[in-house]
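Repro case for the chain-ordering regression, as requested:
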Amino acid sequence: MIEVKNLVKSFKDGPIETRVLKGIDFSAKQGEFVAIMGRSGAGKSTLLYQMSLLDEPTSGEIFISGKEAHTMSEREKMLFRLGEFGYVFQDYALLPELTALENVSLPLIMQGLSRSAADEKASEALERVGVGARLGNLPSQLSGGEQQRVSVSRAIAHKPSILFADEPTANLDRESSARVMEIFKELHKSGQTIIMVTHEDEYARLADRIVTLDDGRIISEKRN
Amino acid sequence: MLSAVDIRVGFYLALRQIRRASRWTTSLIVFVMLLTFLNLVVVTGLLVGIVAGISNQFRIQETGDVMITALDTKDYIENSPQILSFLQTLPQPRAVTARYSAAGSVEANYFSRVDPNEKPNKTGATIVGINPVAEDNFSNLSGYVGEGEYLSSSDYDAVLLGPQFVDRYSFGEQPGLTPLKNVYPGTKIRLTINGNTREVIVKGILDVPANSPLAARVFMPANELRQIMGRYEYAVNEIAILLPAGTDGAEFRDLLKRSGIGDKAKVQTFEEGIPNGVAEVQNTFAMIGNAIGSIGLAVAAITIFIVIFINAVTRRKFIGILKGIGISGEAIELSYIFQSLLYASIGSALGIGILYGFLVPYVSANPISLPISEAIIVAQVDGTMIRIMLIVLTTVIAGYLPSRMIVRRNTLDSILGRN
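-- result from build under test --
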């Protein structure tokens, strides 16, 4: 499904170059749930951003469903992110001027669906995560847990090949976190490929496999 | 490459951003656009209108829509009585006035001048002989009398003075024109034409702007002027004809020419008869108006640029998220272009409403009284449309540039707020 080879990411600050990823080799199969763990600064979020085509690696190769993602143009990457990927960010990343329904509908409209078809699909996705009653609410009118569930809905409404989640429970209370992870569990059961960065062992244990990074390198892989 | 989906999504985002934006901010931007529109259209229109006001003064106070004057080889219009009779048979003229005119001089304060070496208070003048009733029907001359009274047909030794001849109207001393001092209604002055001098009484003084054709004229009943001039036949110097609104002056001119009047006199429309240079002044004023309007346009463009730039910078994270979830850069840029377009359209639409619904008709009915003319607003629809297109184009560019600057930034840097 997704494979990265010898992935390197460096950041330059004047003459100083910092290597955050130091030649990562990683792969995930279709339907697999992988948790990426590690201490702060280990490079786990950076790895997720490179794999999900939100950032440009310094070197290395990325293959997604057999396609060479590292050679794609910006437009091709945009289309790939739109059609194949779903994202759940730590801070929800909802658009403040759009309602819950509109936040979820927007990428579907971008995919070419009519407004009514997009709204219908978005409603279903929101129902699925238990915020079907808050369709017309703006993000500012929702709790953190509800916002994160809207964010999950947006990520799964178009049935992506891979769901990327960057510490999805970091800003949530225990109850809301459990609720979000329950949704992830159900998605995984239905065959969704998930790659999730997390700090929390409890949620990492829900994954099929835990990959641990330290200082820009994978130091261990463990099957649950 | 722009696609239909980009346009749909751009519009979808723009609509929601405007709908949920601060009403005060939106109102302020629309107000700026409204002022830009008014600055661009009204300032130019008013500057052109000042000259149009001068032209219009000439039309309604002197030339009418069509004017008949003596041929260059003659001192007067031949067959004047026949021409006037013919005009009475035509249905078109709304008002007709025939005038005699002569070059002469007027002198005041000659009683108090004891020293013969002292410079007389005397000035050159055009003396115009009129039928007071016909002239009043034509130019509403009685309406311009500021002091004293208007002439009547039975008046004898009475004149109306244009304000240029009266020093307290303070147009100042001009070459060949020395204003008369201490002249009021009832004051006696001397009139000299062709060496014939007559003492007359000032019956009234006109109150018109300096540029009015009435400002430097002395009016008296035609019969009396004819006597002083020694013109015993009824050969007038000019015949001015006012036509009803909407009547084509050129057509009426051609009709008169075809009737044979063209052989005996010069027949001109108002536009042909207007003094040289007025059109040039009009063009100059239009250019000045455009220059002032351009500055306003630049200010509006910068305002929109700043507003959109601040909006885009503060929303940089969300622009990054939009790109991250697969919304194209083109759709995001379009959303800002649509917003700018909407601001410009609403501002311009309000401006059109105020301009054509209130300003133009109101100022036409109540011209702005300026020292040089009774100014109106000249705002032709095609010119206004060009200016609106200019505003819209400028605004679109001003909206596009900052959004493009932000959209082009690295997606992840935008999401994470990194520089």
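Ordering looks correct now. The longest helix of chain B spans residues 23-63.
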